Amino acid sequence: MEFFIQQLLNGLTVGSVYSLVALGLTLVYGILHIPNFAHGALYMMGGYVTLTMMSKSGLPYWLAIVISMIVIGTLGVLLERLVFYPLRDAPPLHDKIAAIGILLFLEAFAQFVWGADYQTMPTPYGKVVNLFGLTLTAQRLLIITSTIAIMVLLYFFLKKTFIGATIIAMSQNREGANLVGININKVAMMTFMISGSLAALAASLASPINLVFPGMGHLVILKAFVIIILGGMGSVPGAIIGGYILGFSESLGATYISNDYKDIIAFVILVIILTIKPTGLFVRRGQS
Amino acid sequence: MIAVLKQKKIAALAILFALAFPLLIPNNYYLHMMTLSFIWMIAVYGLNLLAGYTGYLSLAHAGFFAIGAYTLAILTVKAGLNFWLAFFLSCVISSFIGFLVGLVALRTKEHFFAIYTLCVGYIIYLVIDKWDSLTGGVRGFIGIPSPANIGPISFQTPVSQYYLVLFFLLLVVFVMYRIVYSLTGRTYIAIRNSEELALTIGISTMKDKLVSFVLSIFFTSLAGALYASFIRFLGPDIGYISVMFDLLIFLLVGGIGTMSGPVVGTLLMTSISQQLQFLQDYRMLIFGPILTLLVIFYPRGVVGGVIHWKTKRTENNRDSRVGKISSHSSNEKQVKEG
C-alpha cells in the first residue's frame, strides 16, 4: 500500500510539471488557434537560462527561476510579434511549419551555446523529507506545492482581473472581443508572455529531478499535446486535469506494466481517445 | 500551350542530365550524394502528395520511411527472403500499416491530424528503438544486402545503384504526374481547398483521403526500402522527428504542392548542407530560420515563387493584348498549378 501511495506521489510530481507546460500550450491555442510546436523549445530554453543564471552568476535558485521566466516570456512575445503575427491570415499549415522552424532553431541554438551534454541542475531542496511515513525529496514537494500555488494565482488572474478577462473573452470569440474594444495584439502578446513563463517555470522545477539537455523538450511537448487533446484544446481546467491524469497513468504504468515503454503510454492514450472521438474529449460547445 | 511545351523541355533536359551525370562527373562521392538525394526525393514526393495536394500535414512520414527500411532489412536478413520479393513486400506491409493508421488518423482534421501523426511517428520510433530482438535497437541493424541481380544486370557498383534509384525516382515522378493531372488529383486539390465543398459536390472525401494517404506512404516506404539497401546499415534515428523535419524542409524550400518542388528543394538543400558541413549539428541554426522565413514570405517555395512570378508576367502581357479572354485562361492555369 505504501509503495502504491509512493507511486501516486511520483505521479503527482510528474503531473504537475506536465500541467504547467500544457497550461501554456492551451492558453496560446485558445487565443490564436495554433498548436505551438515551439513550446517544447521554450521549455528547454527555460531550463538552460535558469541553469546559467545559477552556475555563471551564482544567483539563488528562486531568483534564477524568476529571471528565466521573464526571459522566456519575452522570447515568447518576440515569437508572437515576429512569426505568428505576420502569419495570422495564412492557412493553418503555415503556422505549424513556422513553429517547427523555430523549434529547430532554438534546439540548435541551445546546442551551440551550452553544448549537447546532459547537465545537472543543483537545488537547495535536495533533502529527503519524511511525511506521514512516506519519503520524498523536498524538491518534489516544492514542485507539487508551487504548481498548485501558480494554478490558483492563474485562476484568480483569469477570473478576477480585467486583463485576465480579456484573455478569456478573446479565446471565446476573437471578433467579438475586438468589437468591444479589446486590443487583440496586446492580449496575444500577454498570452505568449504567460505561456513562456509557465514553460520556464516548469522546466526550472523539473530540471533538478531530470536533466538539462537540448532535446529535453521533445517528449514533454508531445505529452503536453496529448494532455490538451485529452482536456480539450484551449480549456484551462482541462489542461490541469489532463496533466495529472497523464502523470498518474505514467507512474503507475511504469511500475505495473513496463518501465521501458512508459513513454508510449501517453501516445496510446491519445490514439485511443482520437479513435473514439476525433475532436478530443471535453470540446467546448460552440467551438470547433 | 507554349508554357506546357517549355515545361516538358525543361523536364526532358533534367532527365537527360540525370542520365548523363555519372559520365559527366565520374566521382564516387558525388555519385553517392546524388543517389542519396534521389532517395530523399522519392520520400518527399510521398509527403507532397498528402501535404501539398490533399492538404493534410502528416508528421509520421519519417516513421513510415523507417518502417519501409526496417521491413526490408528484417525480411532479407532474418527471414532470408529473395531481395525483390522482400522489397515489394516491405512497401506493401508499410502501406498496410499506413492504411490502418489512416483509417483512424484521417477522421481528425488540421491540428489534430498533425499532432496525431506526430505521436504516431514517435510511437514508431520508440518501438524500433526498444524492440531489441527484432530491430537491433540502439545498436542498429547491419548487413542488409544490396539489391539482387535482375537477370544479367547486377547492382553492386555505385553507378548501377545510381541508375536503379534514378529509375525508381522517374517512376514515382511519372506516377505522381499521372495522379495529379487526373480527376483523382483534382479531387485531392478540391479536398485541400475545402473539404466541406468537396463533400457537397459529391466527393467521398474519406475514401479519397485514405487512398492519398496510403499512396503517399507507399512512396515514402519505397524510399525507405531503397535507403536500406543502399546504405546497408540502419539505426533507429532514421525514424526520428529530425528526419521528418528534413523532409519538410526539402518540400517547403522546393515548393509544397508543386510537381518539381521536391526535386528542386532536395537538390538545393542537400548541396547547401554539403557546403555547410563544418556546421554539422548546428546547421539547424540556419535551416530553422530559413524554414520560418520561407513560410512567411514565400509559402510556396522556390518553384511556387517562380510560377507566381511567371503567371503575373503572362497575365500582364495578356491583359494588354487580349483583355477579355485572359481571365478565363488564367483561371484555368491556376487550377492546373493547384
Proportion of helical residues of chain B: over 70%
Largest interface: A-B, 47 and 42 residues
Regions with little confidence, pLDDT below 50 for 5+ residues of chain A = none
Give the name of the CATH architecture of chain B.
Answer: Orthogonal Bundle
Which structural class do the helices and strands of chain B define?
Answer: mainly alpha
Radius of gyration of chain B: 21 Å
Bulk shape of chain A: globular
Indicate the structural class of chain A.
Answer: mainly alpha
Mean of all residue-level pLDDT scores of chain B: 82
Oligomer: heterodimer
Q: Could you tell me the radius of gyration of chain A in angstroms?
A: 19 Å
Give the percentage of residues in beta strands of chain A: under 5%
The separation of the N and C termini of chain B measures: 17 Å
Biggest beta sheet summary of chain A: 2 strands, antiparallel
**Termini Cα gap of chain A:** 44 Å
Count of domain modules of chain B: 1
**Widest beta sheet: strand line-up of chain A:** 1-2
CATH topology of chain B: ABC transporter involved in vitamin B12 uptake, BtuC
Summarize the structure.
By secondary structure, chain A is an all-alpha fold. Helices cover 73% and strands 3% of the residues of chain A. Chain A has a domain at 21-215.
Map the helices and strands:
The complex is a heterodimer of chains A (288) and B (338).
Chain A: H1 2-32, H2 39-56, H3 61-84, H4 92-114, E1 128-131, E2 134-137, H5 138-160, H6 162-172, H7 174-179, H8 184-206, H9 217-231, H10 236-256, H11 262-276
Helix pairs in contact in A: 1-5, 1-6, 1-8, 1-9, 1-10, 2-3, 2-4, 2-8, 2-9, 3-8, 5-6, 6-8, 9-10, 9-11, 10-11
Chain B: H1 2-24, H2 28-54, H3 61-78, H4 83-105, H5 110-130, H6 132-135, E1 141-142, H7 158-180, H8 183-193, H9 195-200, H10 205-231, E2 233-234, H11 241-254, H12 261-275, H13 284-297, H14 301-321, H15 324-337
Helix pairs in contact in B: 1-7, 2-7, 2-10, 2-11, 2-12, 3-4, 3-5, 3-10, 4-10, 8-10, 11-12, 11-14, 14-15
GO cellular component, one term (chain A): plasma membrane
Pfam family, one (chain A): BPD_transp_2
Transmembrane segments (chain A): 12-31, 61-85, 97-116, 128-158, 187-213, 220-244, 264-283
